[in-house]
Amino acid sequence: MGAEAEGAGGASRTADPAEAAEARRVVVPPGVANAIRLHAAEAYPNECCGALFGNDAVITEMLRLPNVTDEGPRRRFLVLPADYRAAEAHASETGAELAGFYHSHPDHPARPSRYDLDHAWPFFIYVIVSVRNGEPRDMTSWRLRDDRSAFVADVLIVQEAGIGTRESGETASVPGS
Amino acid sequence: MANKILIPTPLRPYTERRDSVEVEGRTVGELLGKLTNRHEGLRRHLFTDEGRLRTFVNVYVNDEDIRYLQKEQTPVEPGDVVSIVPSVAGGGDTETVESLPALTNEEIRRYSRHLLLPEVGIEGQRKLKAARVLCIGAGGLGSPVAMYLAAAGVGTLGLVDFDTVDVSNLQRQILHTTHEVGRSKLESARRRLNALNPDVRIETHEVVLSSANALPILEQYEYVIDGTDNFPTRYLVNDACVLLGKPNIYGSVFRFEGQASVFATREGPCYRCLYPEPPPPGLVPSCAEGGVLGVLPGLIGTIQATETIKLIIGAGTPLVGRLLLFDALAMRLREVKLRKDPDCPVCGTNPTIRELIDYEQFCGISHEPAAVSEHDMTPRELKAWLDGGAQPLLLDVREPQEYAINRIPGAFLVPMSDLPRRVVELDAARPTVVYCKVGERSARAVEFLRGLGFHDVRNLTGGVRRWVDEIDPSQPSY
User: Fold this and answer.
1) Given B135, B270, B273, B287, the catalytic residue
2) Is B344 in the active site?
3) Contact between B9 and A103 using a beta-carbon 8 Å cutoff
4) Res B114 pLDDT > 50
5) Which of B60, B85, B91 faces A77 most closely, judged by CB atoms?
């Protein structure tokens, strides 16, 4: 399983420089990227989810969280408020920030769904990993636009300190409604 | 005195990065109102455009969720701590937004009663518009299925049938009208469905569904509805759905009873998990033989249409792993749990069926037309024999309700099921001609009687139906 993320999975590209300017780099160390992929593969065909910790878009740690949705874990994930609070508490204990969440899309592209958009929080980093037939594939990173109209695709970089960057995903935008 | 509101990480950029804000108020609603007035950027993330708290925003007073208190009217006391806690949710099932077709204003008016349902809404209606559904059979079950799915705005509806409309279909097949008798069922269905909803694309497949053509037809669709009336096609549809990984929305009816389920989903059982083997041929009569209450396929077909819509929009609990059993006479609906059979030959862990097989043979149905036997007699031969003065016993092995419709004059009624018990009433030495509706039950009766030593027993080929056609058109047929 390579640590290199692939493309943004057929996301509609935009040439709008203003939107491109919104995109930023999200750095994920290979250990965290692999741990997310492993979680996604283990949970398949269900969705997995977990919290991401770090500072200034540099992820340092991931934490698996139980998927408690009652709408069918193959299509949905839900983090209990209690688990959310535990994640915030973990962040303040370790001095990192709760940076966002990851989840998997079994047999769906690594792109936010309408449901993801409707339930997104601002400023959080949303990492999505697509899983095809049990194999983790593309990993992408997204942030909600402040007007809630769409996600902005960030540039997810799997990188260890001091090693050259590997970039994935150009700027993409998923319009709302 | 002010209350403290704890702000979660993603909202802190709107509160100058503070993790708590102090505001005054008597209720949660008042506190949140003042909070958003002071930090305007919070508003769109906490409230909908209509001013309702978003469903994924949890608000706690101390450790109590306000949903279980008085919601936004929940009073706060001095010293109470209010926390805003995100529900983090998402999921990959829904189509990405831009791939779903938009609704026109005309469509929004047409489907407004759907759009008012939160479970459907604009997005669900767009999913219906994008959906491709195949209905096998445009008869009793296919009629309500096609009518309701067309009315609901399913974008593309495929129909498979090869028959023409018969007047005896009209008692239950509400797709077709008296005017269409004798015409193709699919053309009749197309006219009816287009009149109901011209926006629906109707794709017709005027073929006898077979192992040779099933996969290329089924693979064009996302959902398959089984509205078939015979076992070979039902097993064929099931196996094709399993092989293609498509849900099979199943229904069947007989007399006053019906069944429905959703098969062939990855997590659920399939039709073969429920019925690994077909019944022996002839044991279960068809609707043409046994009859069916006209409204019954209406009930079962609308259940199939409902399940299809639920699967498309992703709402509710689908009928997967459950079999509904409906009894119209008792007006009772029962539900039995179905389990996926790990040894199922098609959907089990080690499937032995990896391609479509010969389903006629699997169901014990011969490809060859029944061989003309020396014991057969045509209606014309019988008429000539009777006119010549012969006085054979005319043995009618149909049911009394069939006998009440038409009969050959002078016939003696012993229903097939009573024959073994009542055979003592018959004279083995007397020449006998046995008949039923079309000649199938009577052929079995002839075989049975010959085995008992009746030597001069013949079967009337084509049954009473052919007798009425060729000899006595004054009588009704059925």
Assistant:
1) B287
2) no
3) no
4) yes
5) B91
Express each pLDDT in A83-116 by its tens digit: 899 999 999 898 899 999 999 988 888 888 888 8
- The DSSP bridge pattern shows strands A150-158 and A173-175 to be antiparallel
B41 to A147: CB separation less than 8 angstroms, yes or no: no
Site of tokens 């529900």: B87
Residue B156 backbone dihedrals phi, psi, to 5 degrees: -130, 125
What is the spatial distance between Cα A48 and Cα A29, in angstroms, rounded to a whole number?
19
Domain assignment present for A173 = no
Count Cα atoms within 13 angstroms, Cβ side, for A129: 32
User: A177 in a domain, yes or no?
Assistant: no
CA angle B473, B475, B477 (to 5 degrees): 90
Q: Whole-angstrom Cα distance, residue A109 to residue A98?
A: 25
Domain assignment present for A12: yes
Residues sharing a CB contact under 8 Å with residue A162, sequence separation 6 or more, in sequence order: none
Residue B27 carries which DSSP code? B
Cβ contact, residue pair A75, B89, below 8 Å = no
Residue range of the domain that includes A77: 4-168
Domain count for chain A, please give it: 1
Whole-prediction pTM:
0.58
H or E stretch covering B123 = helix B121-130
Which chain B residue has its CA at the smallest distance from A124's CA? B10
**Average pLDDT, whole number, for chain A?**
78
**In-domain check, residue A74:** yes
Q: What CATH code is carried by the domain that includes residue A35?
A: 3.40.140.10
Residues A85 and B100: beta-carbon distance below 8 Å: no
Output the pLDDT for position A162.
43
Give the residue among B101, B157, B131, B153 at the shortest CA–CA distance from B314: B131
